[in-house]
Amino acid sequence: MKLYNTLSRKIEEFKPIKDKKVLFYHCGPTVYWVQHIGNFRAMTWADFIRRSLFYLGYDVNFVRNYTDVGHLTSDQDTGEDKMEKGAKREGLTPQQIADKYINVFEQDTCLLNIIDPNHKPRASQYIKQMQEMIQKLLDKNYAYITSLGVVYDISKFPDYNKLNHQKIELNKPGAGKGVVDDPEKKHFADFNLWVFKKGIHKNALQTWPSPWGEGFPGWHIECSVMAKALLGETIDIHMGGVEHISVHHTNEIAQSEAANDKPFVHYWLHNEHLNVNSKKMAKSQGTGFTLKEIIDRGFDPLALRYFFLTAHYRSKQNFTWEALKGAKSSLKKLKELILSLKSHSPNVSHKSHSFKQSFAEALVNDFQIPQAVALMWDMLKSDLTPKEKLDLLFDFDKVFGLKLDEVREAKIPEEIIKLAEERKLARQNKDFKKSDELRKKINSLDYSIEDVKNNDYKIKKF
Length: 462
Known about the structure:
The protein is 42% helix and 15% strand. The chain is an alpha/beta fold. Helix 4 (127-139) packs across helix 5 (219-231).
């Protein structure tokens, strides 16, 4: 199996720490607001990758965290805490905001058929362990204390830029900073491990006592601690968005490897962004669409899931309503094919092995799932028997997660059947005007009627 590792900027052979077992950490949401579909592309792709690993015989221990404290509006230690911002917006406590939006997020992930993680830690539950790691970094001289907090000294970690490939050492301290969050920092890229309840944070709503002063953790230390607590000091895969490469994940590496004296992550996976109409998705532009908006426009969440299948995780994907209509149409066609295949006799010719092998080959090549989707359609056009096609579809759907094995012929409402029988009688009486009127009425109720032999008919839902 081969993965693209952001750390080396190349495709590498995947060798887990323990044979056929994968320790997988995924950066979850900051739960101060409803997540948009760009966030859900990341969550769904982590699910595709996890399902692919299951499919290929790996045992996956999967952690996706909730950030419910410490994530400032800038990833570089400036601005307001996002949880406090949400609390003030709605007149609730940060805890109530977290509970509310975790609940919304989990309803949405369920609608998208994303498998629940093995662990869903909240950052606020790991304050003690964060303080222990921070003290360790102080004891090893990787951190220092200012009037406003405990700060990580990047100059003490020689490989600080190994993930982001930036040349920070060429920059001058303080350069390029619009806001000086802590004038006592030795270098502008030094980052907060613990923030005191002082200065712009003197009225912070979420604080805890610590050996250095009352305050709250920096965002970056949270993932390092939760990953260590639930998966160990060294893990196989860490995934997140490309926006995390330059700061968040770079800082995670620095503090984890300094504290533990071990490599933190062997394979870094980063998903690209979802654009809207070829522009950056933005709430301010009205394009930060939520899953509720998708549903309110008449789309099944699984149509969005199908849409996500069609572009590789390392490629940007462009969302348009027309593209989502195309995904909806493809999913509808797939379901109709399943019903058609089920109507045939279950004969078998044992020619499906090559498709299954090609499907696995797509997965082991850095999760080329769009290629696997194309293979699925080729398979459906092949000369395999209906039974083989169905079996392969359901097998492939272990990765796609489109609930294809749940496709059933919809029960036709009595009202529609009654109208169809009236139309059948009208046709027998050669009253074609009435027959046409009844057909239009059936269509208006979202059903189509098709005439077949012996004056019979077939009814389908649009």
